[in-house]
Amino acid sequence: MKNVLEQNLQIRKAFYHILKNTPKAELLKIPEGYNNNIWWNIAHVVATQQNLVYGFSGLPFEVPQKLVDKFKKGTFPDGHATDEEIEQLKKLLFSTIEKTTEDYNNDVFVNFKEYTTSANVTLKNVDEAIAFNQFHEGLHLGTIFSLLKAVKL
Description:
By secondary structure, this protein is an all-alpha fold. The chain has one domain: dinb family like domain (Four Helix Bundle (Hemerythrin (Met), subunit A), Up-down Bundle), CATH 1.20.120.450. The chain is 64% helix and 3% strand. It contains six helices and two strands, in the order H-H-H-H-H-E-E-H. It has helices at 2-21, 24-28, 38-54, 65-71, 83-105, 126-151, and strands at residues 115-116, 122-123. Strand 1 (115-116) and strand 2 form a beta hairpin. Helix 1 (2-21) runs parallel beside helix 6 (126-151). The longest helix has 26 residues, at 126-151.
């Protein structure tokens, strides 16, 4: 699992780079043919990781509940993000993976509630949730690359 979490950190570095180097207007723009934006995709992966790993383990989230509620599965962007929210998310990209690694190494995830994802993958334990999260974040990174091209046209 150590390798999967290290890989996840590399994906998070890509998200950070995009947040840091993309103008806010482009982060928030929803291009024609899309139903979300770069900002929503990055915030969504943080919210989803919390739900998959902490939520289904019956543990409190490491991010504000407001963030999880705003960006969880089934939500859509509202077209707004403050500079403070963007800065907060930059920090959460790393702190959540660091905390997950620490908690995993300390065997905190003991009561995982089985969950079947919208991709029809049944997660039976936290190892499977962490691995699936890696897949999920990769999908959203691909979407973000597509969005980056679309907003710069």
